[in-house]
Amino acid sequence: MRKMLDELMGTTRNGIEEGAARPRFTDAKVCRAFLLNCCPHDILASTRADLGDCTKFHDPALRADYEMASKLREHGYEDDSLAQLNAFLADIDRRTEVSKKRLAETQESLSAEVNAKAEKVHEFAEHIGKKLAEAEKLGNDGFVEES
Q1: Which of 6, 51, 106, 121 yields a CA-CA distance of 20 to 30 A from 84?
Q2: Cβ atoms within 10 A of the Cβ of 65, count?
Q3: How far apart are CA 10 and CA 61, in angstroms?
Q4: Taking a C-beta distance cutoff of 8 angstroms, is the pair 63, 35 a contact?
Q5: What Cα–Cα distance (Å) separates residue 103 from each residue in 13, 15, 112, 133, 141?
Q6: pLDDT tens, 35-77?
Q7: Which helix (H) or strand (E) holds 87?
Q8: Dihedral over alpha carbons 94, 100, 106, 112 (to 10 degrees)
Q9: Closest C-alpha to 132, from 62, 9, 124
């Protein structure tokens, strides 16, 4: 219940600070993207682009504190978070392009290999067809043993 109340009303819900050791949302060790509910570490968790755990502090109560304080004045956290998200997007776009190039190269080599195997299968099928026709002709002519 305490966590839910912290999340909804912030750390100062009782009108007093609940401990001097508790960080404030303005501290440098608090994740500003988390305060805006857009931390890439949380968003990309359990995906192929998982970044691991965020090195900064995440606390829902601090998010509530930030939301209350942002009603009174601008803190500029949106700009910082936007820059961080743009950097992550640029990195993901770069990785995607590298993967696309690698995939195109792999597909070219695979398609050449597949074409060669398909040609070989076609030759075998043609050879089998000729042998079957020859065996049928021999059978019709009365040479059952040879067919």
Answers
A1: 6
A2: 22
A3: 4
A4: yes
A5: 54, 59, 14, 44, 56
A6: 888 888 888 888 877 788 888 888 888 888 888 888 887 777 8
A7: helix 77-140
A8: -150
A9: 124
